[in-house]
């Protein structure tokens, strides 16, 4: 279970009812966007006086925030609902799988309520029904930045919901709807609060970060008497002033992305772009209906590197998409060698129920997908090994994530939490999570770096 409890306070005599707040358990599955949804729901519940139960037994009800993207994720979500019902019995389901309420009900008729993704109000109402809140203003103990499921020193900042693209393998627009950008002042106020609360790294997320503001015509909003535009460039410029590491995820290689690269060269935004390329073959990209697939991406990457030589690119790819030929796949491998991406994840194509791609001709046999996946990983590991070897001997900044008796573990500017590599400071226990230290790289492999702190 995922939990986020307020730090223990000094012992204070409390009225009877404050000492026993209603307790809600939380199981959060899926992507960072679902995690942000969970954070919002938990923040709202805590602001109303609910406590978050650390286990099933102590909970008066359990909220399961599900993922409904891949079939494997759906199966995991259904399993989590079943487990919560067995262990607790009073279960509210929300998140992407909530759009398939019939399926949930047919397997688990005893679920108390089912809501879809980002239906925060509906989830909170369902909790009210299941476990009535205590009405006491003294219970408003939530810090201004809200409650988060990430460690104290980094936080995801969701700038929009939904997506205007229609990639053929994806059902997210059907689940989450078209792009809905948050006003820039809301996003920036949240970012300021996070930094004021000690967050050192902000991870900007959405389904399509480079499309930010398109739906609201880049509208201006008021940030303490000052107009700010809901535009990708303007948002990055504002975030770059906050003094935290700012990392951009889910960006597409549109021409206007060029404008933010100088901010990376100037150290305002991290020199890092997470661009889910998914493939390189024009015919596969066309069949996938990927955004920006007609851009001359390698030329664009070369220009970005001219502006910011330090830039790290991370991406994800799908192999075995329907119709992918050996020639398409070889083209992808050549592209990966030439693009020199710092990090790349690779998925074997999996048909998602309801996706258009399921009806495309040319299904690739599983054993071919498997073989291509191994070939892809071997090429990427070689690319990554060479890039990381170039860091040996260099002094880099490291944001510390964890410390134990054996040393510290952190990340460089080129590594996002959870998905990228680590920097190991073996034997260094004189640091704390959230510290940013300088260290000289002593060793590298295809994923991680080993370094020693410099004075
Ligand atoms: S960009 Fe494509 S893959 Fe990403 S959410 Fe939108 S439709 Fe899905």
UniProtKB/TrEMBL annotation:
Ranges of residues in domain MTTase N-terminal: 22-132
The EC number(s) this enzyme carries: 2.8.4.4
UniProt keyword annotations, A-Z: 4Fe-4S, Cytoplasm, Iron, Iron-sulfur, Metal-binding, Methyltransferase, S-adenosyl-L-methionine, Transferase
Reaction catalysis annotation: L-aspartate(89)-[ribosomal protein uS12]-hydrogen + (sulfur carrier)-SH + AH2 + 2 S-adenosyl-L-methionine = 3-methylsulfanyl-L-aspartate(89)-[ribosomal protein uS12]-hydrogen + (sulfur carrier)-H + 5'-deoxyadenosine + L-methionine + A + S-adenosyl-L-homocysteine + 2 H(+)
Cofactor(s) needed by this chain: [4Fe-4S] cluster
Ranges where the Radical SAM core domain occurs: 149-386
GO BP: methylation; tRNA modification
Residues annotated for [4Fe-4S] cluster 2 binding in this entry: 163, 167, 170
Ligand binding ([4Fe-4S] cluster 1): 31, 67, 96
Keyword Iron part of the UniProt annotation: yes
Similarity field: Belongs to the methylthiotransferase family. RimO subfamily.
HAMAP family: MTTase_RimO
Name under which the protein is recorded: Ribosomal protein uS12 methylthiotransferase RimO
């Amino acid at each position: 279970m995922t939990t986020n409890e307020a730090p223990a306070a000094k012992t204070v005599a409390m009225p009877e009812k404050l000492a026993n707040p209603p307790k809600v358990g939380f199981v959060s599955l899926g992507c960072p966007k679902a995690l942000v949804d969970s954070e919002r729901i938990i923040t709202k519940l805590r602001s109303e006086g609910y406590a978050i139960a650390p286990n099933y037994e102590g909970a008066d009800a359990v909220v399961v925030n599900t993922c409904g993207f891949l079939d494997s994720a759906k199966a995991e979500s259904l399993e989590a609902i079943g487990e919560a019902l067995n262990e607790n019995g009073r279960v509210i389901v929300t998140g992407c799988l909530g759009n398939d309420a019939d399926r949930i009900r047919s397997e688990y008729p005893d679920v108390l309520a089912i809501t879809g993704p980002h239906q925060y109000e509906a989830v909170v109402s369902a909790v009210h029904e299941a476990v009535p809140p205590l009405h006491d203003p003294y219970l408003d103990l939530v810090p201004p930045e809200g409650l988060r499921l990430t460690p104290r020193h980094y936080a995801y900042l969701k700038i929009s919901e939904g997506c205007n693209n229609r990639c053929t393998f994806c059902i997210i627009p059907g689940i989450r709807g078209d792009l809905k950008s948050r006003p820039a002042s809301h996003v920036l106020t949240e970012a300021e609060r996070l930094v004021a609360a000690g967050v050192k790294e902000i991870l900007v997320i959405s389904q399509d970060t480079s499309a930010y503001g398109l739906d609201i015509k880049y509208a201006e909003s008021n940030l303490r008497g000052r107009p700010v535009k809901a535009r990708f460039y303007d948002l990055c410029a504002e975030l770059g002033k906050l003094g935290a590491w700012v990392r951009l995820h889910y960006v597409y290689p549109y021409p206007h992305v060029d404008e933010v690269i100088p901010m990376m060269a100037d150290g305002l935004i991290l020199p890092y772009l997470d661009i889910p390329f998914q493939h390189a073959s024009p015919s596969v990209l066309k069949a996938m209906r990927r955004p920006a697939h007609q851009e001359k991406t390698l030329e664009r990457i070369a220009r970005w590197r001219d502006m910011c030589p330090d830039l790290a690119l991370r991406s994800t790819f799908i192999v075995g998409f329907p119709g992918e030929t050996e020639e398409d796949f070889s083209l992808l491998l050549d592209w990966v060698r030439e693009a020199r991406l710092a990090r790349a994840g690779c998925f074997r194509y999996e048909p998602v129920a309801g996706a258009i791609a399921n009806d495309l001709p040319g299904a690739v046999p599983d054993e071919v997908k498997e073989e291509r996946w191994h070939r892809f990983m071997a090429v990427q590991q070689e690319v990554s090994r060479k890039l990381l070897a170039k860091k040996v001997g260099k002094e880099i900044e490291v944001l510390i994530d964890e410390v134990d008796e054996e040393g510290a573990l952190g990340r460089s500017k080129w590594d996002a939490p959870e998905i990228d590599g680590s920097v190991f400071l073996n034997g260094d226990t004189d640091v704390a999570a959230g510290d940013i230290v300088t260290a000289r790289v002593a060793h590298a492999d295809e994923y991680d770096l080993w370094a020693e702190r410099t004075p």
